[in-house]
Amino acid sequence: MKKDSLGIVHTQYLTFAEPPDTLQLKSGRSIGPVTLAYETYGKLNANKSNAILVCHALSGDAHAAGISKDDKTPGWWDNMIGPGKALDTDLYFVICSNVIGGCKGSTGPSSINPETQKPYALDFPLITIADMVEAQRHLIDSFGIEKLLCVIGGSMGGMQALQWASVYPERIIAAIPIATALKHSPQQIAFNEVMRQSIMADSVWREGYYYEHGQPENGLAVARMIGHITYMSDLSMEEKFSRKLKNENLSFQFKDDFEVEGYLRYRGYNFVKRFDANSYLYITKAIDYFDLSGEKFMSAVKKTAVRFLVISFKSDWLYPAHQSQDIVRLLKRKHAYTTYFDLISTYGHDAFLIETDDETRLIKNFLANVSPD
């Protein structure tokens, strides 16, 4: 086993908001009981001051690092979490949970509704990034952790990091939002709406009540194909595919003649094996609802002691650098200690999962100067 490997890891589960308690949601509705799937890496120190919360992106889950006991797959950020890595598990206790509304162990639309003993489907309430963070707060409380050393995440994970800083500034020392935004632009909402419509236009979707029949694989695959295009850059697609053909000659049929077509089909139809279509609808809607712009961010705080490291990538056109710069400007107005880097990369939005060398250097140096005191 490699020295920097975490080896086999186990997913754990926390259930809270059991009757008569419920989790109150921003929509005005409530839900309970609520289960969160989570994994931890490293050890929590005696005074519980070394905890770092990792927040995942749209299609992520609790399995951020190590090798899954169940399917032997590495975590989605395994290159960033472990001994000697950016989030050094020799120093820090790292926690990652699957968001509510998800489909990888946490309560979501595919979970059983205790009132009907059937999957919630569209009876599940609409959730927000704020609701995801409130559920995470219950998880953090279960460890007896009063203050997190850091909250970190990319894309939707970065939104959760910002939400933590905005709502619970007294409970975190630092935040690292990566490749994210304070709110979605009309273009970003438009992409999500097209993806949602592709799912809902699939006849197998059955208005969301498809669990007894099988999920809308074609619609979900197309949604993922659309999403995956936005995660790459024009340059990265040129370097990876250009106009390469799968075979020597064009088929003159509606087949995947080009390698890029075959790649997108593979990504789309592989995705349906591990993700629930309704969860895709709910989570993209939560992202679109997110808005911490202007006075909404830290509305009760004029000056914050939370320290921030904000990272963007020059080739990211889904969450372009100017949106990270908007975050930095807002943080400056709150007199926050803020460090910002716009990293050179050709990978587009996916860079936050790939450019681990630069991220490791920045995050290690930043965390070295973050003290629990």
From TrEMBL:
Pathway: Amino-acid biosynthesis; L-methionine biosynthesis via de novo pathway; O-acetyl-L-homoserine from L-homoserine: step 1/1. The active site is at 155 (nucleophile), 316, 349. Its EC number is 2.3.1.31. Belongs to the AB hydrolase superfamily. MetX family. It is found in: Cytoplasm. HAMAP family: MetX_acyltransf. Keywords: Acyltransferase, Amino-acid biosynthesis, Cytoplasm, Methionine biosynthesis, Transferase. It comes from Candidatus Portnoybacteria bacterium RBG_13_40_8. GO terms for biological process: homoserine metabolic process; methionine biosynthetic process. Gene3D superfamilies: 1.10.1740.110, alpha/beta hydrolase. PANTHER family: HOMOSERINE O-ACETYLTRANSFERASE (PTHR32268). It catalyses: L-homoserine + acetyl-CoA = O-acetyl-L-homoserine + CoA. GO terms for molecular function: homoserine O-acetyltransferase activity. It comes from the Bacteria. This is Homoserine O-acetyltransferase. Residues 51-353 form the AB hydrolase-1 domain. The gene is metXA. Homodimer. Its main location: cytoplasm.
